[in-house]
Specification:
Elements lengths: L1 E5 L3 H12 L3 E5 L13 E2 L1 H9 L9 E2 L2 E6 L2 E6 L5 E2 L2 H14 L3 E3 L4 E6 L5 E5 L3 E4 L1 E4 L6 H5 L9 E10 L1 H5 L5 E6 L6 E7 L4 E9 H4 L6 H11 L10 E6 L8 E2 L2 E3 L14 H20 L4 H8 L1 H18 L2 H11 L3 H12 L4 H6 L3 H11 L2
Parallel strand pairs: 1-2, 1-12, 2-8, 5-14, 12-19
Antiparallel strand pairs: 3-7, 4-7, 5-6, 9-10, 10-11, 13-16, 13-17, 14-15, 15-16, 18-19
Helix pairs in contact: 1-3, 1-8, 2-8, 8-9, 11-12
Bound molecules: flavin-adenine dinucleotide.
Length: 386
């Protein structure tokens, strides 16, 4: 069975590796020359590491390891220690590492070649046309990110008001200056309305990635341009005299698309809206890549279409994102509630244990929600009243 993957980000890269490992004939088209730049803060959580290790991908050589997270909301702060391996990467290196692993497993990689058309012949095979080459295949996996061509080709909408807008820059600061950030990712919740600011240090590259995230519909409510707020934000962290080239980019944050494909064409990663709390997308891109690979195998040995199989292999992930991450985002981006919660972390053991679970990510949000003791929560909030 021949598989074409459109897009060489983490979703496409791991799907290509998995399917090639299983003996499928895989061609991956990427529109940019690899290594390509991706606007991203580059946080690789413990969940991302676990998933990558499960398919034998080791990223230690390119990972700037982290010890913890520092979260500030107004006058409240909390420190969370990371108990297992996590860190930050430069996405150019990370994504090309995944592509290399896919190539080692046998995938054919065609880079600097944008996919411009997909058609289906009478024999049921698809013809995927890129700028350089065409490939015939039985199934197509759209892993082409937030502005997905494959999604548009299928006429599947992703509501623009479900997008977040980011402005970010990779700022060179040098290895010495970077020690100031103590191998800790910094989050400033509520720095912009319903959003946050971040500073993620990368010891290996001597850079920090700084940025702001805000729901798209809230940008027009700002009384100054987001770029001006970004300059102010990095100024507050003594980063403004450095060479800074900020970029704006989009990110899905309010759940997945309604339809995950059609026939034997499916969507994974950002193309399908698989993004978790606060814009963390890499682990869910990887997981949806695994689900797609599993669906291809089932489709190959059964009668159902790839889209039907994928819907079934992705059921758990869809529920996790649509039900729980979207719900949690409402709490995360409510500064009043979030500030009160983090003030309680030091005072209340139960709240502190919940936050630990969230950071560790070995438990799904669904499990965390299901096991919440509302009486303990209520007690903690009552204790916090003046
Ligand atoms: C500013 C910012 C910060 C972020 N920070 C984090 C973070 O710290 N941690 C985290 O986990 N997530 C983060 N995310 C989210 C994360 O970047 C995405 O969720 C993740 O990259 C999705 O992976 P993907 O493979 O689905 O898509 P992408 O990584 O976007 O890859 C899609 C690929 O498809 C290619 N492509 C597009 N169209 C075509 C075409 N027609 N033909 C061929 N190729 C095509 C693109 O060039 C691209 O290489 C951040 C996002 C933003 C915007």
């Amino acid at each position: 069975m021949e598989v074409v993957i459109v897009g060489g980000g983490p979703a496409g890269g791991v799907a290509a590796k998995k399917l090639s490992d299983d003996g499928y004939d895989v061609t991956l088209f990427e529109k940019e020359r690899i290594p390509r730049h991706k606007h991203c803060a580059g946080f690789i959580s413990q969940k991302s590491i676990r998933l990558l290790e499960s398919t034998d991908i080791d990223i230690r050589d390119i990972l700037s390891e982290l010890k913890g997270l520092h979260i500030r909301c107004g006058d409240a702060t909390m420190e969370l220690k990371l108990e297992s391996l996590a860190g930050n990467v430069i996405r150019d290196e990370f994504d090309s590492h995944l592509i290399r692993r896919a190539r080692d497993s046998g995938a054919k990689i065609v880079d600097a070649s944008r996919v411009v058309d997909i058609s289906r012949g009478e024999d049921g095979k698809y013809l995927v046309q890129s700028e350089k080459k065409a490939a015939e295949c039985d199934v197509v996996i759209g892993a082409d990110g937030v502005n997905s061509f494959v999604r548009r080709h299928l006429g599947i909408q992703y509501d623009r008001s479900n997008l977040g807008v980011t402005v970010e820059a990779e700022i060179p600061v040098g290895a010495e200056a970077i020690t100031e950030f103590k191998e800790t990712n910094h989050y400033d919740i509520g720095y912009v309305p319903n959003g946050y600011g971040w500073i993620f240090p990368k010891t290996k590259s001597g850079t920090v990635n700084a940025g702001l995230w805000i729901p798209r519909d809230d940008v027009k409510k700002l009384d100054q341009p987001l770029s001006a707020m970004f300059s102010h934000y990095i100024g507050n962290h003594d980063l403004s005299d450095q060479k800074v080239v900020p970029h704006t980019y989009l990110i899905p944050y309010k759940g997945t698309v309604d339809r995950f494909g059609e026939g034997n064409i499916i969507l994974i990663g950002d193309a399908a809206g698989f993004v978790g709390i606060a814009g963390e997308g890499i682990p869910y891109a990887v997981e949806s890549g695994f689900n797609a690979a599993e669906a291809v195998k089932k489709h190959n040995s059964g009668n159902a279409s790839l889209e039907e199989e994928y819907r079934s292999t992705s059921e758990g992930l869809m529920e996790e994102i649509n039900e729980y991450h979207v719900k949690f985002n409402r709490f995360f981006f409510n500064p009043t509630l979030f500030r009160r919660t983090i003030k309680l972390v030091e005072k209340d053991e139960y709240i502190s244990s919940l936050m630990k679970k969230l950071t560790d990510e070995s438990t799904s949000l669904k499990e965390i929600y299901r096991n919440i003791s509302y009486s303990k929560l209520l007690l903690a909030f009552l204790k916090s009243l003046p």
